[in-house]
């Protein structure tokens, strides 16, 4: 059975907050794709664990560190997608 997206999201948040790269990488599928709006300084498409860490480096660099706070999350009823609002402080 596939893990619910919201559970995966919170596991990822926990791994990132713990600065546990090994655990974070284990949560990201090789076919993972993240799309960031082109209007952002880190806009573009990021693929797989390496792409995810490239994105994280750019986001942390833009916002001045890894201090983030998950504010809101919503998942579809099937549990396959999640949308999250995060505040960097």
Describe this structure in words.
The protein has 89 residues and is of the alpha+beta class. The strands form two sheets. Strands 1-2 form a two-stranded antiparallel ribbon. The protein is globular.
Notable characteristics:
alpha+beta; 89 residues; single chain; 3 helices
Quick summary of this structure?
The protein has helices spanning 5-17, 21-27, 48-63; strands spanning 33-36, 44-47, 68-75, 82-88. The protein is α+β, with helices and mostly antiparallel strands and 89 residues long. The relative contact order is 0.18.
Helix fraction by DSSP (H/I, runs of at least 4): 40-55%
Name the overall outline.
Answer: globular
**Uncertain ranges:** none
**How is the biggest beta sheet arranged?**
2 strands, antiparallel
Report the span from N to C terminus: 36 Å
Mean of residue pLDDT? 89
* Class inferred from helices and paired strands: alpha+beta
Number of helices: 3
Oligomer: single chain
In the sheet with the most strands, the strands line up as 1-2
Radius of gyration: 13 Å
- Sketch the topology as an H/E string, one letter per element: HHEEHEE
Secondary structure: number of strands: 4
Beta-strand residue percentage: 25-35%
Task: Describe how the helices and strands are arranged.
Elements: H1 5-17, H2 21-27, E1 33-36, E2 44-47, H3 48-63, E3 68-75, E4 82-88
Antiparallel strand pairs: 1-2, 3-4
Helix pairs in contact: 1-2
